[in-house]
Amino acid sequence: MPGQDSDQDRMEWLRRSRFEAGLILDSSRTNLHHLDHVWHGPQPVNDVNGRDALTETVLQPLSASLEHVEERLDILIAGSFKGSDWTACCGHYAGLWTGPLFGVPATGRPAWLRFGRFERWDGDRIKETWEIFDLPGMMMQADIWPLGPGLGRPLVSPGPATRNGIVLESGSAEEAHRTLTLTEEMIDALLAYDGQDFESMRMPDYWAPHMAWYGPAGIGTMRGYEDYRRGHGKPFLGAFPDRQGALHKCRIAERTYCASTGWPSVQATHSGDTFLGIPATGNRVGMRVMDFWRRDGDLLSENWVYIDMIDLLAQMNVDIFGLMREPIGGS
């Protein structure tokens, strides 16, 4: 690692290192990881201990499944959180889907695997990673998603409308602080829900009227505050009325972007309305979640949301892989 003259130099080095590593998906990519690196992933992979195991368990299956796989980043930021340096990024793995991927059968056609990732650095190496793959999105691309359609549109989410999600040079600390402050004020307002009235959270104070919310497969994409309230905000609170923040791992901001994750990020009881067609189970659930936000002036304009839906559904007594292999109504 080269010597850095300032925190900004350090963050720029982290961004460049992560960006350059993202251009390859063979075993040499893991040279950026500590030997005892720990990868926390989604169901059905979960935790992977060690750099060699990361190659064997995650990278090689990706390369074997998606021919000529490319990592296409939409957002990449770096920052410090609770004494550690972090990078956070999101985008897609793209390739020709020629082999099964973590239990989902191939289509032989082009595919886009949505992902979000947070990495905690120790010196010039990555010590720990949290990553969510949108495997339900792959099931939808293969036309084998066994549950009903979500309330939003099942789209391959685009990158930022401003096309500036990756800037390797550092921005101003003041702009980053402004983004972080607005995002945290919005989160505080979410947690102020009175249990009765959706508008008690005052979301229009924080979101642009024509905001875009890019949710995980199964929930989908919404455009505009009213569409978001209809398609996710109210149904989610109806199903999980006591939801609260949980074990946050990282929250950082750069320029007009903020990113946050927890493992789990949200804890709740599935005690209210039907969710994704599943009646209330009364089960306590923890949700692995990643959020990436873009600020536009004084309001948030875009939100990329990653949830380990397979893990959440398992906690709601739904074996999505079992249903995938024998869909409801099948013989």
UniProtKB/TrEMBL annotation:
Gene3D superfamilies: 3.10.450.50. GO terms for biological process: polyketide metabolic process. Pfam families: SnoaL. InterPro entries: Cyclase_SnoaL-like, NTF2-like_dom_sf. This is Predicted ester cyclase. It comes from Parasphingorhabdus marina DSM 22363.
